[in-house]
Design goal:
The complex is a heterodimer. By secondary structure, chain A is an alpha/beta fold. Chain A has 15 helices and 8 strands. In chain A, strands 2-1-3-4 form a 4-stranded parallel beta sheet. In chain A, strands 6-5-7-8 form a 4-stranded parallel beta sheet, sandwiched between helices. In chain A, strand 7, helix 14 (229-246) and strand 8 form a beta-alpha-beta unit. In chain A, helix 4 crosses helix 6. Chain B is mainly α. Chain B folds into 2 domains: 5-106, Fumarate Reductase Iron-sulfur Protein, Chain B, domain 2, CATH 1.10.1060; 112-166, no CATH class. The longest helix of chain B has 14 residues, at 93-106. Chain B has 11 helices and no strands. In chain B, helix 4 packs across helix 8. In chain B, 54% of the residues lie in helices and 0% in strands. Chain B has helices at residues 5-14, 29-33, 35-40, 51-60, 63-67, 72-75, 82-86, 93-106, 112-124, 132-140, 151-160. The interface between A and B is large, with 65 and 62 residues.
């Protein structure tokens, strides 16, 4: 069986580990094997790349070297990490000058980037194992209305993400439907959560979030399903501030795809730490 | 308003898709689809975040016009890559914006968050450093400890690239 190197990323590993707990439980049920490595920050495709593109390439390539040393592909729990690691590989593959520059630096720490391992988003790995996922569902979430938000970096830029249609994504919807829930379509499905802009300009970030959540509310969704920790945090932690700012109630619970699956596979909310969510779950779950 | 030919050349060279950027015909699909343009500009304003205007200024070499403006003009980008997908000329706008942001960082004009995250990565090899409370929570959840990254190795890499000098 294929064993992947687990790339949980800074946000999940060091801030919201309950998502890693749900993910590991689901991987176990589906038969996806993982092992750890001493990965650093990916680093962030919105922050560190904007800070210094060459530093972003070098740090990303170093992470890829760690997986290459074991000859194992990476499974990432985060859109940003997947985007960075795939993006670094893409840039170095198509720009030999940059590759030479990065490898010159890596040689000083005894490493060389070859480009020999693949980087997979966990959504894509679950999709490859859809039959096993379906077989592991013991408590279908019938009647639960779910708005899907795959997030920008899961499918864009299409040139190097190669995962889904960049403007009409369907993978997450297909996976949510597999656990018996009802997917509700909404107008602003491919709109960014605004996590990156909120870090620098909170007012504009919240204005964008309002557009997104108004559209989700209008569709009558019970929960929002995501597959990225940055999007998760944006929805989970900002709804209270948004409610205050616009004097309207926003309190739609947010579930990671693997949390939704863990519930449908028979785990209790306590098993996967749902109590650590900021936007409280409603009783029907 | 001066034209900086060296800057213009750098922009052209930065575009991986070769000289496609020269053929931007300012159709404005990027700005029309940009979520931040939608919340920062109205039809008549010249401020806010406008990807179409950024490409035009970069293409013409109007360096001062770009970097002397309100930083929002560059840093309003939320890196959603929507413009890249809707551009009829397949211009990789976000890559050009990365170039502009990198230069803005060197001039000390980026938002504090950008310097803060880079500093955290330099000091701890993680954008979000490990904390005792979360380590305990991981244990309660039955998770293995996060394997500590080699901070020295990362610092060597970043110092040799001169990235540490850009920190605040």
């Amino acid at each position: 069986m294929t064993e992947y190197k687990m790339f949980e990323g800074c946000t999940i590993g060091n801030r919201i580990p309950f998502i890693e707990a749900a993910s590991r439980k689901v991987f176990e049920k589906v038969g996806i094997d993982t092992s750890q490595a001493a990965f650093s920050c990916c680093p962030d495709p919105t922050g560190m790349k904007s800070f210094d593109n060459d530093a972003w390439l070098a740090v990303g390539a170093r992470n890829l070297c760690l997986a290459e040393a074991e000859g194992k592909d990476i499974i990432s729990l985060c859109n940003g990490c997947t985007n960075t690691l795939r993006g670094v590989k893409h840039q170095l593959k198509h720009d030999s000058l940059k590759k030479d520059k990065v490898n010159k630096e890596l040689s000083k720490i005894g490493k060389e980037f070859k480009g020999s391992v693949d980087v997979k988003h966990f959504v894509d790995v679950l999709k490859e194992n859809l039959d096993k996922v379906k077989a592991a569902i013991s408590k279908p979430l019938s009647g639960l209305k779910v708005a899907c938000h795959p997030g920008c970096h899961y499918m864009r830029p299409a040139e190097w993400m190669e995962s889904d249609d960049p403007m009409r994504p369907k993978n997450l919807k297909e996976l949510v439907a597999a656990c018996g829930a009802t997917v509700v379509d909404y107008e602003e499905e491919v709109l960014c959560c605004g996590s990156a802009i909120t870090n620098a300009y909170e007012d504009y970030g919240l204005a964008n979030l309002k557009t997104k959540l108004d559209s989700i509310k209008k569709a009558g969704a019970d929960v929002i399903c995501v597959n990225c920790p940055a999007c998760f945090q944006q929805f989970d932690t900002q709804q209270r501030d948004l409610s205050k700012k616009y004097e309207t109630e926003y309190a739609i619970p947010v579930l990671y795809l693997t949390e939704l699956y863990a519930l449908a596979m028979g785990y209790s909310p306590d098993d996967i730490g749902l109590k650590f969510h900021r936007t409280r779950m409603k009783s029907e779950l | 308003m001066t034209i900086d030919f060296e800057f213009r050349k750098q922009v052209m060279d930065y575009h991986v898709g070769s000289d496609l950027i020269k053929y931007c015909y300012q159709c404005s699909r990027c700005t029309d689809n940009c979520p931040i343009s939608a919340v920062t500009i109205d039809f008549y304003s010249t401020g806010g975040y406008n990807p179409r205007a950024n490409i035009l200024k970069a293409l013409l070499g109007y360096k001062d016009l770009i970097f002397d403006a309100d930083p929002l003009a560059i840093w309003g980008c939320t890196v959603c890559d929507t413009c890249d997908e809707v551009c009829p000329q397949h211009i990789e706008l976000t890559e050009i914006f990365t170039f502009l942001k990198n230069r803005s960082v060197e001039q000390g004009k980026a938002p504090e968050f950008i310097y803060g995250q880079a500093k955290a990565i330099f000091e701890s090899a993680k954008a979000i450093p490990s904390q005792p409370a979360i380590e305990r929570r991981r244990e309660q959840l039955g998770l293995p400890a996060v394997v500590a990254p080699d901070v020295n190795e990362l610092q060597t890499l970043l110092k040799n690239l001169g990235a540490d000098k850009k920190l605040k």
